[in-house]
Amino acid sequence: MRVLLIACLVACGSGSRPPVTPPVVGAELSPALAPFAWWLGAWQAEAGGTEHWVASSGVIFGIALHDGGNFEVMVLDDGDGPGAADGTLRFFAMPGGAKSVEFRKRDLQASAVTFANDAHDDPKTIAYARDGEALTATLGGGDKSERYRFERTTASRAPELEAADVAFANDTAARGIDGWVAAFEPNGGMMTKQGRVEGTGAIRELMGPLLATTKVEWAPIASARRGDVGYTVGKATFTGKDSWRSTYVTIWKKQPDGAWKVAFDTGRTVQAR
Questions:
Q1: If DSSP codes are grouped into helix, strand and coil, which group holds residue 142?
Q2: SS3 breakdown of the chain: % helix, strand, coil, rounded to 5?
């Protein structure tokens, strides 16, 4: 959820400000991502589970929520790092918050797109296409092609997750790294450009220096849940020697005591347009 000194794929939680109404979709899409407006929204899979595609500050986040608390995070952007967007469309897939795999746009049509990574073992291609109120996802290039079909659905916001996100931000503002680490599950993870950082000890080592010198504020703009797993998407501001903005997605899981903890967190720098 934050984009820190290691830049790029790090996220931010929510903030000391109250939840806000989701902004107009068009204002959240960069020119390079505007052709993907057909992809946004909530989709119900025939085989069970949902996918949620949310635009925020020039990034599109995809969140797949499955039964049993499983999840996948996907990121579509058109730039790398805090500079200007470069127009190269990148798709990152993080099943279960695991290693980030990058695919790049191979073909884009009016309501269909194919991303490819020929060096990846399986899949080598990820394609999405919309036909009316139906969405299909096709994974190809391995031993066999896998195809998934979705229907348009609606997803209620999850105020309990937005409240947890706000509490996360408030506790971090008050206690710094101690507040940050307290929001995570013991084996929770963050994705950075260098890879996944897992466990509260490693997260403390990663985030401690940043939070000691930089004020971080954030707030959610979107949320949803499926059973005991859900997400918040939001925007963050970093103020210190260097200042920047980011957008983030945080995956939350319900604990046995009923509390919500961060299972996974990642984000992108908001780039100059």
A1: coil
A2: 20, 45, 35
Q: CA-to-CA distance for 232 and 33, rounded, in angstroms?
A: 21
pTM of the model: 0.89
Which pair of tokens denotes residue 221?
């703009």
The pair of three-digit structure tokens given for residue 142, joined into one six-digit string:
């391995």
The tokens 């290039």 sit on which residue?
141
Do the beta carbons of residue 230 and residue 65 sit within 8 Å? Answer: yes
Tokens of 244: 């920047």
Distance in angstroms (rounded) separating the CA atoms of residues 61 and 233:
8
CA distance 98 to 271: 25
List CB contacts of 227: < 8 A, sequence separation 6 or more: 67, 69
pLDDT tens digits, 179-206: 999 999 999 999 988 889 999 999 999 9
Element (H, E) at 186: strand 184-192
Domains contained in the chain, CATH given: 25-153 (2.40.128.20), 159-269 (3.10.450.50)
Separation CA 41–CA 179 (nearest Å): 32
Q: What is the pLDDT of residues 31-54, one digit of tens each?
A: 899 999 999 999 999 989 999 999
